[in-house]
Design brief:
With 492 residues, this protein is an alpha/beta fold. The protein has 16 helices and eleven strands. Bound molecules: glutamine. Glutamine binds at residues 128-131, 154, 174-178, 206, 315, 426.
Length: 492
């Protein structure tokens, strides 16, 4: 079979279980594609063929023996922020270029237990700080729809591997939009779960009160399969919540679009910088949902102007604390010939971190310092609460809230946005993390340059099933999610 990379997760599962192809064949098929195409896309930081083939053989044996789980033998790529035992875990940073993790993140452990095959680790903005994947120590990943453009970030590698058919699905993390925005830029479906739904254990920390892992795939159905694997309580993460996990696949039809109340925050559609064709595609998708029986209701979200400043205080504050562990002493990069301890700290950090990471450490340290703490950090926490309350009030009237995932489609590589310009591009995603809510991106068509546009649906707490179900039904009635990126078409 030559088109194995075109099969959905359900089709892969059926094909494997029915013996139409083996996991070894499937895995080799993907490894060959990576070898052939990834020099152009630059999505993988590390490919793990030996690990993949040994996991594939174990899956094949389990399938033969009749005791395999449903997803056994299906390949997966992990964002290089998930610790993988015995495999380099770089977080896209020179600081961790030499770091071989001694243990697996819980998400990785769960993926292994489900019989999934690790193809490798994929590129990302350094320490997940960014929106283009250009800040990686390993260089920029390209957008499979047009190689002159970025795939988004920080989970740009995860988006690019799926869009280029170099993995059937991938893990990502989302601190302020890093699953939804790259999914939007690459025409994919990506889910940011409720804070606490997926364990953060073994995920290299950026901003601990905002970080959350989730699936990136071609469809809501494929995302549901991965959610079934990774969701759940973990005693190793004190912020993970001990709450029953839905069967996301079984629930794909559980929510009725008929009568569903979709909130349209008018403030979101008046944001300066919202591109005309993004607005048009999003409005068309809402019209489609309306045709399917949904009711569009205007809602007020009044805090839009506070999103960017609040996030860009809290996230750097937490980052400055989390990143203090990289001191050149315990692990990671160490400078050559330090003259004393201070020199070791200073030069290891100066040489090991990139520009954006240093900027965040400076901002965060400043905001947390005595004298400024109350004025900035404490104030930001209060505004964060107001942002959450604003959402809860809106959810009294509606089931979900619709918005663009990003004000524009993908940027050109090297566009060199100023930090402020880049931060403003996150306006539609940040508040979801500040409030801890779940949200999903679904592809809803292309702009004038043939680049994908994404619709974001934001749900109330623990409504992952509902979000996946709505997007699944939308995808049953449309074919935007089946459109393929240029490089995938050229290598069909
Ligand atoms: N683009 C945002 C930032 O730079 C969000 C990143 C993320 O979600 N990891 O912080």
């Amino acid at each position: 079979m030559t088109n194995l990379h075109r099969l959905s997760i359900r089709e892969l599962s059926e094909g494997l279980q029915q013996g139409k192809f083996s996991s070894r064949e499937l895995t080799q098929h993907y490894l060959k594609r990576i070898e052939k195409i990834d020099a152009q896309v630059k999505s993988y930081v590390t490919v793990t063929p030996e690990l993949a083939l040994s996991q594939a053989d174990a899956a094949d044996a389990a399938i033969k023996a009749g005791n395999a789980t449903a997803l056994a033998g299906i390949p997966l790529a992990h964002k290089d922020i998930f610790c993988t035992q015995g495999v380099r875990t770089s977080a896209g940073s020179k600081m961790l270029d030499n770091f071989i993790s001694p243990y697996d993140a819980t998400v990785v452990t769960k993926a292994k237990a489900a019989g999934l095959v690790t193809l490798g680790k994929v590129n990302m903005d350094e320490f997940a700080m960014g929106s283009t994947s250009e800040s990686s120590y390993y260089g920029a990943t390209k957008n499979p729809w047009n190689l002159d453009y970025v795939p988004g970030g920080s989970s740009g590698g995860s988006a690019a591997v799926v869009a280029a058919d170099l993995a059937p699905f991938a893990t990502g993390t989302d601190t302020g939009g890093s699953i939804r925005q790259p999914a939007s830029f690459c025409g994919l479906t990506g889910l940011k779960p409720t804070y606490g739904r997926v364990s953060r254990f073994g995920i290299i920390a950026f901003a601990s009160s905002l970080d959350q892992a989730g699936p990136m795939a071609r469809s809501a159905e494929d995302c549901a399969y991965l959610m079934n694997v990774i969701a759940g309580h973990d005693a190793k993460d004190s912020t993970s919540v001990d709450k029953e996990v839905d069967d996301y696949v079984a629930n794909l039809h559980a929510t009725s679009v008929k009568g569903l109340r979709i909130g349209i925050p008018k403030q979101y559609f008046n944001v300066a910088g919202l591109a005309a064709d993004v607005k048009a595609r999003v409005e068309e998708s809402l019209k489609k949902l309306e045709d399917m029986g949904a009711i569009l209701v205007e809602v007020d979200l009044n805090m839009v102007e506070a999103y960017v400043p609040t996030y860009y205080l809290i996230a750097p504050a937490e980052a400055s604390s989390n990143l203090s562990r990289y001191d050149g002493v315990r692990y990671g990069y160490r400078c050559e010939n330090p003259v004393d301890l201070m020199d070791l700290y200073k030069r290891s950090r100066s040489e090991g971190f990139g520009e954006e990471v240093k900027r965040r450490i400076l901002i965060g340290t400043y905001a947390l310092s005595a004298g400024y703490y109350d004025a900035y950090y404490v104030k930001a926490q209060k505004v964060r609460r107001l942002i959450q309350q604003d959402f809860l009030k809106a959810f009294e009237n509606v089931d979900v809230i619709a918005a663009p995932s990003a004000p524009t489609t993908a940027y050109k590589i090297g566009a060199n946005l100023s930090p402020t310009e880049m931060y403003l591009g996150d306006v539609y995603t940040l508040a979801v993390n500040l409030a801890g809510l779940p949200a999903i991106n679904a592809p809803v068509g292309l702009d004038d340059h043939n680049l994908p546009v994404g619709l974001q649906l934001i749900g109330n707490y623990w409504s992952e099933s509902q979000l996946l179900s709505i997007v699944h039904q939308y995808q049953q009635n449309t074919d935007f999610h089946t459109q393929r990126a240029a490089i995938a078409e050229e290598n069909a």
